[in-house]
Amino acid sequence: MFGDFARHSATAAPLYGELSDGVADDPELAALLLTAPVVQRQPVLLFACVHWLVLAHPDEPLAAFYPNVAARLGVERPPGPAIEAFRAFCGDHAADLRRLLSTRRTQTNEIGRTALFLPVFALVERDAGPFAHVDVGASAGLNLLHPFYDFSYEPGGEIGSGSTVRITCGTRGQPPIPSTRPTVVSGTGLDATPIDVRDPDQARWLEACVWPDQVERFERLAAAVAIAVREGVDVRRGDAVTDVGALVAEAAAVGHPVVTTSWVLNYLTSAQRLAFVAALDAAGAERDLSWVYAENPTLCPELPGGPVRPPSASDPTALVLVRWRGGRREAVHVADTHPHGRWLHWLGTPT
Ligand SMILES: C[S@@+](CC[C@H](N)C(=O)[O-])C[C@H]1O[C@@H](n2cnc3c(N)ncnc32)[C@H](O)[C@@H]1O
């Protein structure tokens, strides 16, 4: 597994590629992963746990090999291979590492995806007015904070200024980029295991799950976490299928309810996905409702409006607007996108 991971990650994440190569050659290091529950035994878990400890100990020799920590410290990467320092660090922190490996599971919150939602929100707002946002599978709830982020669409224009978070998204086609942020009257998240970023331990775990080679993504996440701590964010613990209806009803009391899901429904079984759509159908039968999803159509073939033949890319992501108006459901595949929101290819604006 470490050998495979090294091959696949070497281009996007040179440090993890190098470390993974080293672990593949060192049975004692690789065996650390056996501390984790069977279903969690993935190389990324070991790397996230070590990253968490590195972020807590930036003064240790290994830290300077991590591009994100080196950038923060303003130091150069030391000469020589990183694996020696990695091995020493794992030995010195063996007890903490084992505790983390046995209890943690990787969890992310990718704020780049808000750039995908904004043009669709603009369409919904034009049609249904100010909206109440319900993000299902919200993780730490950072994608509810789009009113506090700035956006650059290239081409397409800028939205907002002065935020510590700027999200850049390349565009193709004619996405309806709004000139201002949408008017959101409330934001509520729902997650099976919400992350509370006011707890520094949990915030650091979210950061540790980002690959240290992706310095810009790491810094952007840290800035979004700081906004979440400052502004507060409401993420409830619950299940996508059984609890979405109550949150939609709550949202509808203050504005037009808009549900979002992004890279969440692939964690559900096929039956659960169908039940989730049925729960939204039930909510949409009672009141007008919108659902914007950015999901993998290959892994989630049951969703309405997905492409008939999904592209064969490794992480295809379909951006779909589903609307219930007067009890009738209509779904439009509006864009193909990068899974983290780095680009979107607009396919057509629904009327
Ligand atoms: C890959 S993360 C995506 C988080 C966020 N939507 C984003 O785009 O960054 C998937 C999230 O879905 C949550 N999740 C998985 N199954 C769920 C369920 N049945 N009900 C609620 N949340 C769930 C996980 O806890 C996790 O936070």
Q: Which of globular, elongated, flat, extended, rod-shaped describes the shape?
A: globular
**DSSP helical segment count:** 12
H/E series, N to C? Answer: HHHHHHHHEEEEEHHEHEHEEEE
CATH topology of the largest domain: Rossmann fold
How far the N terminus sits from the C terminus, by CA atoms, comes to: 48 Å
Query: How many runs of DSSP E, i.e. beta strands?
Result: 11
Largest sheet: 11 strands, mixed
- What compounds are bound to the protein? S-adenosylmethionine
Mean pLDDT across all residues, rounded?
96
- The CATH architecture of the largest domain is 3-Layer(aba) Sandwich
CATH domain class name of the largest domain: Alpha Beta
Question: Explain this structure to me?
Answer:
The chain has twelve helices and eleven strands. With 351 residues, the chain is an alpha/beta fold. It folds into two domains: 102 residues, no CATH class; 201 residues, Rossmann fold, CATH 3.40.50. An eleven-stranded mixed beta sheet has the order 3-2-4-11-10-9-8-7-1-5-6, with helices on both faces. Strand 10 and strand 11 form a beta hairpin. The longest helix is centred in the middle third of the chain and has 17 residues. The relative contact order is 0.13. The protein binds S-adenosylmethionine (SAM). S-adenosylmethionine binds next to strand 5.
